[in-house]
Amino acid sequence: MRKVLLPSMIIIAASLLVLRLFYLQVINDSFKLKSDNNAIKIQYDYPERGYIYDRNGKLMVANQPSYDIMVIPREVKNLDTLEFCQLLAITKEDFIKKIEKAKVYSPRLPSVFLAQLNKSEFAAFQEKIRNYEGFYFQKRSLRDYQVNFGANIFGGITQVNDKIIEKNPYYNSGDLIGKQGVEESYEEILRGIKGVKYIQKDKYNREIGSFKEGKYDTIAVQGEDIHLTVDMELQKYGEELMINKRGGIVAIEPKTGEILALVTAPNYDPAILVGRQRSKNYTMLYRDSIAKPLYDRGLLAEYPPGSPFKILTGLVGLQENVVDTHTTFMCNHGFAYAGGRFQRCHCGGGSRDLNVGIYKSCNAYFSNVYLRTIGKYKSTPYAVDVWSNHVKSFGLGQFMGYDLPTGKKGKIPNSKTYKKIYPGWGYSGKTIISNAIGQGEVLLTPIQLANMMSAVANEGYYYTPHIIKKIEGEKIDKKFTTKHLTTIDKSHFKPMIQGLFDVYNFGTAAGLRVEGIDICGKTGTAENFAKINGKRTQLEDHSIFVAFAPKDNPKIAIAILVENGGFGSTIAGPIASLMIEKYLRGKITRTDLEKRTLERSLQDRYAKLGGLSEVVKKEMRRKDSIAKSKIVVPKVKIDTTKKIN
Description:
With 645 residues, this protein is an alpha+beta fold. α9 packs antiparallel against α19 and α12 crosses α14. The C terminus is likely disordered. The chain has 2 domains: 187 residues, Alpha-Beta Complex (Penicillin-binding protein 2a (Domain 2)), CATH 3.90.1310.10; 374 residues, 3-Layer(aba) Sandwich (Beta-lactamase). 34% of the residues lie in helices and 21% in strands. Strands 2, 3, 4, 5, 10 and 18 form a 6-stranded mixed sheet that branches. Keywords: Carboxypeptidase, Cell inner membrane, Cell membrane, Cell shape, Cell wall biogenesis/degradation, Hydrolase, Membrane, Peptidoglycan synthesis, Protease, Transmembrane, Transmembrane helix.
């Protein structure tokens, strides 16, 4: 039996090996399709990316044809280099550099020699392409922006790098991929599926037809269209109001969490990052380390929130039952605390309850509320954590989970924070009193401030902010329709909302009222320090304003932060009133506020910190001329209600 077993096993194993080789070499052709097979040429067909529309169905981003000159280095023969370089408007040095780069990638495989030629650039080359062995063209599509704003929302398209190719086998050298904004967040939906053709070649390297009669060929599938939550007109208007200023505006629909506008300033025309000038323009924008036009201040910039944070100080005090709506504190033009220190206040002084404390923005009132909150418990660290957890329930101090690829957590301190700051000795509420008025260790991004106001407008809940409204043929992520509850009882929001309404009636925003619209808001001014010549220097305060409207059944919540803008009522406040009226009515009646805001420039203040790049200067001049001409509706090149086929 043993004599038979071993030979039998050998025969069976050999038979299986022969059958496998027969299957791979005769029956299954898939291994012949590998990219390093010299007998088969792989040709890709790139689909159009999906179109991008705003919440009202207006087209914002379409496509335009583009051509890449491809090269297979080992097939380049008998080339008239001088003529070739003249046709493509490149130098001989550029030619050598590009060929060498292609050889490094692969001598046998195609790679991009020159990318993103437009029709006119490609026309002359197309007539003579048959003379240049080893070169061919690959048709692609580039973005065609129907608007000259919203660059931070859209993001852009760029070539994949080696790391992306290694990580994701879908991409090949020269492929395009979405970078930043919705182009990155929804890349797999927008990009579609590229088609592929396998072309058989003979021993002389001539194409003789489709491999296996096209059995393995696939057709390109166009990317899906997406509809954003953004209101195109509101976004454009916000960017105009922020000309010659730095900062961010975020507007949200409270009942849904849909982002209505996401403005960062300074911004730029997205079209300057399309085509052969993309690299040059991107480099200039990137090197502007002062104005930072590529830096989305609405999502990334962390600021002390200032007085708008008093809203949460008051709500936490009510929830912890350390005060009620009738509790009063005396303000002596400020608040004296530990060691004779004095926190100034501009409310005018006198007895303050919750309502007056809010609409007059009394530092003394909210500092007392904060001290009572921290003093409620025997352990200060425990009390700080109680306070911190209440505040974090508004979506603060954490990544919010929105559908854009960039963001910052902000900072809401807890007991661990102060254990690091004050190691080895105790601290009390007075030590960290600045938290009460949105200074101290508290940092928020503009989108977090807007989300906070959405939760207040909704009387205790919010939805994760998001920028996708509809995807053709798909449902949006359910996390954007999941309600998040704060730790504050609903009953505490009504007196707070009344106080915010009275900010416009009797308080710091009384001069910003819009007839017929009940706006609830809060001014804010945050101290601002920067290092200049190595020294910590106090600069003009940041101007902050948060609001929602109407008071009943709110349709919009908004946060505005203008760097070095001064008092909240001077620049940020007027922008809030104008944005709210623009969204709710579609027109502006407070033309006095509009004129003042459009003409207001803070460039003299920013000049202390350094200059701007030439690209940003040019862009600001262009947008300035647009704003002064009062063009409201952008010039649209194509039908904004129908898709182009």
